[in-house]
Amino acid sequence: xxxxxxxxxxxxxxxxxxxxxxxxxxxxxxxxxxxxxxxxxxxxxxxxxxxxxxxxxxxxxxxxxxxxxxxxxxxxxxxxxxxxxxxxxxxxxxxxxxxxxxxxxxxxxxxxxxxxxxxxxxxxxxxxxxxxxxxxxxxxxxxxxxxxxxxxxxxxxxxxxxxxxxxxxxxxxxxxxxxxxxxxxxxxxxxxxxxxxxxxxxxxxxxxxxxxxxxxxxxxxxxxxxxxxxxxxxxxxxxxxxxxxxxxxxxxxxxxxxxxxxxxxxxxxxxxxxxxxxxxxxxxxxxxxxxxxxxxxxxxxxxxxxxxxxxxxxxxxxxxxxxxxxxxxxxxxxxxxxxxxxxxxxxxx
Length: 349
Ligand code: CP3
What we know:
Pathway: Porphyrin-containing compound metabolism; protoporphyrin-IX biosynthesis; coproporphyrinogen-III from 5-aminolevulinate: step 4/4. The protein is of the alpha/beta class. The chain has helices at 8-13, 34-43, 46-50, 53-67, 85-90, 124-136, 150-159, 167-175, 177-201, 218-239, 256-263, 276-282, 295-300, 302-315, 335-346, and strands at 76-78, 93-97, 101-105, 142-148, 205-210, 245-249, 267-269, 289-293, 321-325. The protein contains 15 helices and nine strands. A hairpin with a 3-residue loop joins strand 2 (93-97) and strand 3.
């Protein structure tokens, strides 16, 4: 008798506790891998890779091929793309300055959102990547799609680039809340079809990255983080029931509790500044969590890494838990340390 393939990561998102804890790494496809750097050197730029579905599918699968997919491997594949594809499809120009980061033009601090001309066909190659990955994925691996959350996307759209303390977006949100609300609403409307498109092409769960959630005061957090994430969760769940949603409000600290309760996400991602024992004590009972190894402990390796891993595993004796980093893996992370981490996790708990 044959049984359905077991996907431990998806099982955690549905409230189970497989042992050992399933794991993936934020930014697991990328610059710390020599095979990624080789492909990138061939193709020219990051966006060229995202828009070459064959290359993007290869990159999505690179970490799984290198580290394996069994008990001592990775249990999730995250789509190789970027959160800034949404503003690009909404009509901003997008490029990456070498050594500096993303640029979006015109910045919405200076230009009106209504002046942008959307081009939704910019989503299509990403869906093609999803279909290609799906066809090649091993049955035990869970395929994750993603989008940026509206506040984080707005910080880039308003400033036209990354910004210290997200000051341009925070200033606009106070000075002209109606105009800022219109930007947030437009991002929600652009994000929903993008996530639905990824799901229809084959992803099995999605993560909402709110990388700059930590820069907001409690009232602003309620309005610009919780409300739009809740809108996305409610509408996505109505449109595509049964697809788990992981919310990752980086830097939210104690506001994680309201975020978890009020957005309705199926799981919350914890960044490395959150004490996992605090999270276990304060988050709603039974809510799955994901995290939260300090990416720099992974760079350090050795005993410090083993101890950090053990502390995280011990903090969740009964709660469903996906092991992950607290934020993206950094480019100078030694591959051997990733292998050390996976070996440590593979023993179970
Ligand atoms: O492996 C994965 O996690 C999947 C792919 C992925 C990328 N970016 C690829 C990428 C994901 C999920 C993201 C999310 C993302 N992108 C976030 C949210 C998560 C976070 O880290 O907070 C943000 C804020 C961005 C925006 C972005 N993209 C920036 C600021 C930069 C430049 C700085 C940097 O880290 O290089 C990017 C480029 C980017 N996105 C790269 C990769 C692999 C580097 C591209 C390269 O130079 O080769």
